[in-house]
Amino acid sequence: MDSQCVSILPRVCGVLLVSGSSLPDDTSLEKLLDWFTTVAQTGPSLLEACPCLVDFVSKVAFNYASGSSILSFTLKLTGLIGASEDGFKVLKECSVLKLVFNPQHWQEAGLWEDPCLRIGWIQGLKMILQHSEALSFFAQADLIEPLLQLQTDPSLFVASAANQTLAQVLLLCQSLSSVGHNGSKNRDLEHNSEISQLPGSQQILRLLAMLLVRVGPPLRDTLLLAVMNSLEELVTTSCSQLTVPLLDVILAANSGLRDDCVPKQRLIRLLWAMLNMKKPDDVMQAAAAVLRSHQSDPALSAHSARVLLLPLDIVTGVSLLDENSTEGELRILITEQLKRKSCISMICVCLSNIPQITLMASDRLPCPQRLIVTAVLLLLRLCCVDSSSSSPGCVEVVRFITGNSKVQKCALEALLVLSKSPGVKMVLVEVFKVLTEYLNSPSSDPSVLQKSYQVVIKWVGVCPDLSCITDQLREGFIQAVRKRACDTRWEARDSTVEFLGHLVEVPSCWTFTEQETEPLDVLLGGRRFTVPLLKEALQDPESYVRASSISALAQTLAPSWQDGTALTQEQEDIVAQLQEVLFQDSEGFARRAAVKYFTAWFSACSSPSSCWLLMQSMPTVLSQGVADLDWEVKLHTLELAELLLDRAFPDPSPSHSYAVMSDQDHRLPIAGQQSDLLSSLKNLVDWGVVSALLCGVVDCDRPVALKACQLLLKLRGIVCPVMDNAADTRVFCQLAGASVLQQVRKIQEIGKDTHVVSEACSEADEEGICASVDPECVGVCEVLRLLDLDEKLSILTQSSDHIYNSPLSLLQDILTAAAASSPPGQDSRQELVMDCY
């Protein structure tokens, strides 16, 4: 531990002892505890490093005037100290343990009612329960009683922490085999076996579920035997509030048992009992839980699937289940439930579990998946406000589900999954019609529109044959997309332009002419429809839409970039607009997307140098991007600069982008290579890469400066070893801005080099490089060599936390806050030292 921390820690303890002492912020105590935890885990002993802590804990235990946060912190600290056997012995000898962890002590002081203290007591207890001595203390002090009572605490945080600590007790019992610990374990099991007699049944069931997942035999078997009767009793009560926690317990217990063992058979009977309850909502929840748990019992899974499909069968009238099915009574109950507003949640449970149903083997499915697709499509039509469809099933439900976005999104999500069903081509036209209806409907919520677009992409992607899409369907879809591109809600416009970009990436398909083509051409008529639409969206008043349109344009034009197709006038206009976005857009989203556009363009071109407009735009994009106020724009600009650097100097064995590059890396044979290096380096200077990197390395945003420093080191490793001895081939670049110039001036002032400034500049004014912020000429190799990039990299790779969030800084902040709150004329430090000792 740092000696400075050791020297001032007693004073900090004194500050914490003083009633009413202010702390720098609410997290100071948690940070202090985190530091102590780190010391305890990495050092030999917490008490060896911080001997004053025992005295601090003892004084707080008797000082009822301490605030609740200090008391809670002290309880946790006591647990942390006692987590080691040596620390436990010291606390025991000082008689601190019995006092601190005695609930009656805090009740008599009138402090137990504070949930902050109770949570500290529980967490301290959990920390200390790491060894056999602590478990013996836990049993002898009879702490199981208050811990069980805290399971039903009105504070959810306290109750949850009590559950976790009880689980830790049993897990520790499992790992220790001494006789002295069985008493506490058995007593715990006895309490938990009386679930139905406690008011906090939900908390106990959560504890049981947690334990059954984590413990192994023989404790698991003992626990199951202890609670099985109570579980059976709870199932027969049919209490809806206990359905979910009961299922969690049963399924957790069932997952690790052999099929032929008695407890497994009893648990399966419990699941059947829950699937045959008289409350439809509870039965649906039970069926969903059984399917999610992937039970090995085929009859149980098949019955659960039939239960979950019943609402869809009833609402749509599509016969998904056998008429001779055994769910006759349940069908009547669910039909009655569907006539009430609460039907929404039931239908959503049904739809959200369709993905689990489709995973079942075909011989266990209640019906072919194509029928489920038909039922979901009919349900979507019933939910659409503008649809004229009527339900052949339960008519009363329609008034509740029409226009309900929750049901619509669940149905669309189910349709996404059902796209993988066999024979989907047969219903593709119906799917397309329903989705077009939703896109055309003015009442469709933006989130529903977004989900509809996702379904289109998914279904088109899995159906390579789109010959069924007629001209009439295409025209209706085009009109719907055009309408949504002009929607008054920006979310709808944003989803539309995103869809146009994603559609380009869908694999090729076949049309009725048996020719391979792109889905974009089949559905929307190709780029002649989408590009003008996206170009218009560049002027959208919402920045999210502008950013999405830029990204979609990059996706749309990428194939033509890869083919090397000549740019059209429209594409040249787009480049001009994007440069304008970089200069004038007030929102960072659009500017980030603009830089990424040029990055995608450069990456897609096999020969960027042949694209004059792209390379002509580079200096403007790099200079403007690296000077942006948004750090992400600057970082994306440096990523573009990295691509240019890699293209200029191809590396046969590329290293990790964040690896530190030494001067020996990328060393090329000197003979015959200087001219190639010189040409490539001049290209980088002309493109504005070097200036952008030198500007970025002094940026105030650490990620930006770090990236620029790494790239400059990479450039130095490539160029300097070959070019250092070639004085007649020096390459100069221009610097704009005072930051880099100031660094160069500091180097000059200490006499490291006087040749950084170009000869032309130095003849005019040797200090001209520092005299103004106008661009100045500097030698690239000289700057790379003189800027202490290695030291800068080591500083940048360190998080600022190593200074501002260090333990020493934290302790000093606590002392400073205490001094600021002291009365005038009082020497707070002298008071604190005397108080501590």
Characterization of the model:
The chain is mostly helical and 837 residues long. Among the domains are: 1-141, Leucine-rich Repeat Variant, CATH 1.25.10; 607-647 and 675-743 and 776-815, no CATH class. Helix content is 67%, strand content 1%. The protein is built from 47 helices and 4 strands. The strands form 2 sheets. Strands 1-2 form a two-stranded antiparallel sheet. Helix 12 packs parallel to helix 14 (201-214), helix 15 (219-237) runs antiparallel to helix 16 and helix 35 runs parallel beside helix 38 (689-696).
Which key features would you list for this structure?
single chain, two-stranded antiparallel sheet, Leucine-rich Repeat Variant, 837 residues, BRAT1, mainly alpha, disordered C terminus
